[in-house]
Each structure stands twice: as structure tokens, then as C-alpha cells.
Write a structure and sequence with these properties.
The protein is α/β, with parallel strands linked by helices. It is built from 27 helices and 16 strands.
Length: 667
Amino acid sequence: MESTLRGKLLGFRQIAQEKLAHVFYSIPSEKDLIIEQSLIKPLEHVCGASWLRKKGIDKIFKFDPKNPPPKRKQFVYFIDSSLLTFKSVLDQIGGYQSQTSSLMEPDIRNKQYHVLVFPSVLASFEALLEEEGLHGIVELYNFQWDFLLLDDSILSLELPTVFANVFVRHDTTLLGSIAQSMRIFNLVMGKLPLIFSIGENAEKVLQMVQRIETGVGKSVPNSVTPVEKEPEFAAMLIIDRDRDYPACLLTPVVYSGLLLEIQTLHSGSLVVDGDTNKIKSGKLAILQQDSEPQAATKQEVAALRMSGAQDAIYLEHKYRHFSEVISLLSAQAKTLGLEGKAYSREMKLSEMKDYVTNKLPKVAAAKKELFKHLRLCETIVEEIGGTFEKHQMIEESILTNTNRKQIMNYIMELLSSDAHRYNTLRLICLYHVTIGLTAEDMTRLMTGYLNAFGHGHLTVFHQLYLAKLFPDTTTLTKGKILSQISIPTLKSPFQLEANKLKQLPTDTIEATGGTTTPTTEAVGLVGGASGGVTPKAGAKACPSYVFNGNYIPLVAQLTNMIFGASSFDNLNSKLGHLERLKVSGRALNGVPEPRTIKELAASSHKAALNQLLPFKEKTMFVFVVGGLTYAEIAACHLLERTSGAKIVLCSDQIIAGHDLIQSVVHC
């Protein structure tokens, strides 16, 4: 089953190649490709330069609005669905057209300009084409690569603007692109018997998939109904990002998660740049003046592929606690150093030749890869390590609704002495979604942030409100504010819900006085806790280890509970209280709309559902609308190892909390 599933996951690449080849074959003779820079990395997962040349592409240029390439033959532009980018493309084409003789009529049968739009052509593109007088001269095409396999069991649609568009602007256009990809998923993997959805956007995607499949069936009259193939997964879980903000806003302790805290990820490729990182770029310039003179030499920029198939060191350490990774990498560096000194003058000539030809290049390549990881670890320690342990304690206090005064003092101290444009907002948003801000706290935090970064950022708080990350600030009347801001209570609504799902191990222990769930101590990034110890071995048995034992991501906990259900009645006793969790799928073909677990437990479908549980094979496909984090991936990976399950995770993009807040700020 494992090899079959792996082959089908790789099959998505072949489907993308076929779709791209179909476009290129429809354009006769040779052509040049002009590609937008942000699409280069994802396209590398679909095809290479040699493949493109076999399909008639002669030269490949990077799109630059100010410096158009020389016009030689047909141009194929590959851009995203941004109207501003499309306008820049049309300006270039207009410039080429003005250079040709005005006496020559354009031959609309052999168009010289073709624009490939990812993921789809918008209606506004056609209108702009007419306004620019280029209708009939430029041909538009849709292209979507669907699922890109970034690493083992990790897929991405690489749609970087989904969160900003869907959750902030409430523009659901991109949900249609997700639905199209989910339809391809059904064709490849088979329709799943059970689909669990939580969140209104997740439900919209499933409704769109159903409408697309129904429409395709109606468009082919007298077609034979295909035999439904056996599905590769027992169930699917599709969830909105706003259903579990803490899993994105908390600071992870796993190596892969911390890599995204300091550097930017582009389609599975991480930039390794010693001169700049997310922490430096987000801080006020005045706070970085002391460190500027130290940066005397310019370090080269390299890339790290966050894929176990591409990087053996990353494969070994990606889901480990960071404190373990440092010691293990140090040991590897010492081993490679000894291997590099293995050369001896006492060697025979044949031994010297073998060493120089075979061993030395391998040692040099291994050192180069190890150096990348050591540079990244050094950056993590320098930028995060100093305040990491205190920051973890504050996050734990926020999750357990304790020490409110200490939390506020810590955030205000950050705003006055170590303000970060995105990470400080991230902590404020975590405070709001878990505890709830009082009117006084909201005013203090807004004032502190605006004093640090300027009052031009006032609109940021409204954008955060639209994403449900901050209270409404549009009408700052006392009655309006008090009606939406929570009064301090012993347990917040978030905690009550999270405790029902057993997502807060530390809170559960404090409440019961027991040790029902393995947890970790407050472990620092280097050298462990105050006693200098590393994370306890027992802690790794709980998915909460990704947040130092403080929190279990919702996707991991729901998946674990679904796998652990012995019957549908048993599942109802565990998750029946979740009114937002809906169930649909092939096993419920007679049900027109997704229904809650409690409703199905009282319906005639209960007998059929009881036959599906427990699953014969624990296989789950998880999709997060709005971005997936490496902390969630690591938690599910632990669940795989401890339960013998197979979990494939997918989203529109792999993100960190910094990226989520940044997308809101620049929305």
C-alpha cells in the first residue's frame, strides 16, 4: 500500500506536466518563456529546463517589467493571477507592438503573445485586454499544477495569497482553485468514504467539488458511470486555519519549525542568508545599529531543500527538539573532521588515488551541507535563544490563562525595547484568541505598537479583526468595546473547548493534580532546562512536544481521536460536542449536505457508519485551508510512528506564525 500511495503522490507531477504540455503543443513552432520570479521555484517541482526545451521552449527569461527581453519569436508569459502583473505584461506587449510597422495588420490566426495564468484567468483580465486594445493579439490560458510533493507525505498547492484573500478580504475566488485540485485528488485517490470538515471555508470547498463533479457528469450525455475505485485513504480531514490559530501563533521547538522562524520558505527551498533573516528584518532599525558594524564581510546566499530525499542531515533531524539537534550536529562535524584528516603520507599510491577520487569529494560535499545547517542553528541561537525560555513560559501562561499581569508586562517590555513588526503582533493575537483582551489591555497594546512603528499602522488592527485575530476597533465607543471583549474568567472559551479535546496537557495536569499526559519541562534552545538537561524521553510520546509540552495541534488531536474510535457511537462520545465538525463522504451518498456527528448518530446512517469504524487501515489525508505549519506536520509524524498510521498533509502553503501575521499586515 505504501509504494502504491507513493506512486500516486508522484503522479500529481505527471498530471501537471501533461496539462502544461497541452498548452505548449497548442502554440505552434518555437517560443520563448518569460516567467515571473515567484513561480520559478514551484515550477521546478513540475519540470526542468530540458523538459521545457523538448516542448518547444527555446530561451527562458525572468519577467522584469522594466527590462523586456529582445523580441525574437513567440512569447509565452507565465504569471500569477495579479491584475497589476498582468497590466505590466500588457505594457510590454504594447511596446513590442508599437515597434512593428503600423501598416501591418496583426495576424490573429497566429498570435505572437500567449499569457499563462496561475491558477486561473480572472474576468478582469479579459476586460483589461480590451481596454488596452490587445484583444485578438494576446491569448490567455489557465494553468494549475495542483499538488506539489515537497517532502515525504507533505503536499502543497503553492497558493501564497489564500489566507490574505479568504480570511482577511473574504474573497473566496481561490477556493475554486482548491476545489479543482481536490477534484483531481478524487480522480487519482478515489472518493473517500468519510470526510470530516471544520470551518465554513472547508465546507465551501467540499460544496464546490460536489458541484464540479455533478456538472462534469451532466456535460457528458449518455456517459457510462465509471466504477468507483478503492480509495487510498480511509478518511479526510479538511480544516480552516482560523479553527486553530494557536498551532500557528505559538513558537515551535522542532528544528524544521524553527527554520521557518528565521528564514523564508519558497516551495520547499529555504534561503540560507547570514546577513539577513526574518527577525532582523522585522525589528526597528534603531534597535539594530549596534550589530551593524560587526557585519564586515558579505556571506554568500545558499539554499536548503527541506526534503528528506534531497538532504540526509535534514531527514535525520527535521522533527527533533532543537536542543538535541545542536549536539548531534556537533558530533557529526567532529566525525567529518576526523574523516578529512584520514589522509596519510604512509598511504600507498593506490590508496591515495582512491582517497582523492572517491572519499575526499564525498567528505567535502558532506561538510558543505553540514555547514548550511550549522549556520542556520547559529542564527536560531543568536536571534531566538536569548529570550526563548522566558517566551515559552509566557506562551504557557497565555494558554493556561494565568499571570495576566506578567503577560502584559512582557508584551509592553517587548514593544518598548525589542519590538518586532510581526512577532510582537503574533503574541498579542495569541493573547486575544486564547484569553480575550480587556478594553484596557487593548488600548495599551495598540498605543504601544503604534508608538513603536508609527500611526500609519492603525489599519493593521482592523485587518487583524477581519481575520478574527483582534477585537473590532472600528467603533471605539465604550459600549461597543465591552460588548465584544471578554471579562477575565478562570477558564476562557478557548480553554474549555481545548480541555474537552485534551489539547492542553499542562492545564489538564494543573486541574487534576495528575500526570495523565506526558509533558516536557521548560526546555531552552541550548543546554536544556535550568538544570542543563535535555527533553525527557517520555515527552516524545505526546504530540505536544512540538510546543514543549504546552499544546497539541488540533489536526493531530482530531486525527488521533478519529483513529482511536472503536465505533461511530464511540466517536460521538468523543467529538459529538463539536457542532462545527461536519461529516460527509461516499458512505453518506444519500445525505445532501454535511451533517454533525451528533445528528448522524441519531439517524438511519449510524449502522453503516459503525461498520467503517474502527478503520482497518489507519490512513488519513489532512488539508488545512489557509496554511500548514511544521509543528502540525511534526505532531502528525509522531502520531504516525506511535500508532502505525499513514497521514498525508497538504495545504495551500507551508507557513510559520510570522508569515501569517505578515500576510495580514500587508493585505
